[in-house]
Design a protein that fits this description.
Helix content: under 10%
Number of helices: 1
GO molecular function: carbohydrate binding; hydrolase activity, hydrolyzing O-glycosyl compounds
Largest sheet: 9 strands, mixed
Number of domains: 1
Shape: globular
Distance between the termini: 39 Å
Keywords: Lectin, Signal
Pfam families: Glyco_hydro_16 (PF00722)
Protein name: Concanavalin A-like lectin/glucanase
Number of strands: 21
């Protein structure tokens, strides 16, 4: 998978969006270093309990129908839509990520990533958004989402640098009762590190939080704040970006294409990152600050 991004496009959907930045929550405490300078937003760091300190926070919520209806086309600085085609390779069909498949739901407030139903020829029109930056080196990311009940696609909440530097939190909508947690193999002779855990019993009818903490030497996976898997093999060490997608190419993994519209709904994304372009000086004694 070569994940090209349309970095010039910050308007994610032809629809209404709202970006809500959380000011103070119990989740994180902010720190600053006297030598941090202007490269760190507000001169502060974000401390995620039992995880670590991060230079960058990205947080968006799409949970208010009135705001979604009133805002019009929203500009989301940290996220961009994807617009490119992935060849079929060994799969039956190619797939294409299209802007038109990114929208909003007012009845069930969320942004939507849709694979339209009834497609029989490739490329299969799909949907993907990514972070606007590709210099993430470690992070903690929470996605509140509702999985589609329509069989035939893959939902992915993933870190990606290349095919050997990838972390996946994935759902196959043909068998949505299982979450697939993977650090992709860093080389052909590396042992596979892919695990299956039970998804929430109501994953297709209710919103749940799916979280990945990527740290040196390990990736930890959570569902609704409960640690469900730690993977210490094939841990990425290269910077890359985070992505959220819904796709099908008719292969044995994704299956499909879906007979009906398959819609992944995302209600919020909350991410903490260390980025290689952002100065990190929190090794100095930090002290609290307010933003």
């Amino acid at each position: 998978m070569v994940a090209l991004k349309n970095t010039a496009l910050n308007m994610m959907a032809i629809g209404a969006m709202a970006a809500v930045a959380n000011a103070d929550q119990s989740l994180e405490k902010r720190y600053t270093s006297s030598s941090s300078g202007s490269l760190v937003k507000g001169g502060c760091y974000y401390s995620v309990p039992n995880v670590g300190l991060f230079t960058t926070r990205m947080t968006y919520s799409w949970d208010n129908a009135f705001t979604l209806a009133a805002t019009g086309v929203g500009v989301v600085q940290d996220l961009v839509s994807s617009l490119y085609t992935v060849g079929a390779g060994n799969s039956p069909l190619p797939r294409r990520f299209d802007l038109v498949n990114i929208g909003v739901s007012l009845l069930d407030p969320s942004i939507t990533l849709t694979v339209p139903g009834g497609q029989t020829k490739g490329p299969i029109s799909s949907a993907q958004i990514t972070t606007a930056y590709d210099d993430i080196l470690y992070g903690s990311v929470r996605t509140v989402a509702k999985i589609s009940s329509v069989p035939g696609t893959t939902h992915g909440f993933s870190f990606y640098a290349n095919d050997t530097q990838e972390i996946d939190f994935a759902f196959l909508t043909t068998s949505s009762g299982v979450a697939h947690l993977t650090n992709e193999q860093v080389s052909a002779d590396s042992p596979a590190t892919s695990y299956q855990v039970s998804a929430p019993s109501d994953a297709t009818s209710a919103y749940h939080e799916y979280r990945v903490d990527w740290l040196p030497g390990k990736a930890m996976f959570y569902i609704d704040s409960k640690l469900v898997q730690t993977i210490t093999g094939n841990v990425p060490t290269s910077p890359g970006f985070w992505l959220w997608n819904n796709w099908s190419n008719g292969n044995a993994w994704a299956q499909g294409p879906p007979a009906k519209d398959n819609v992944l709904k995302i209600r919020s994304i909350d991410g903490y990152f260390n980025r290689t372009s952002v100065l990190q000086t929190y090794a100095a004694t930090p002290f609290g600050c307010n933003i």
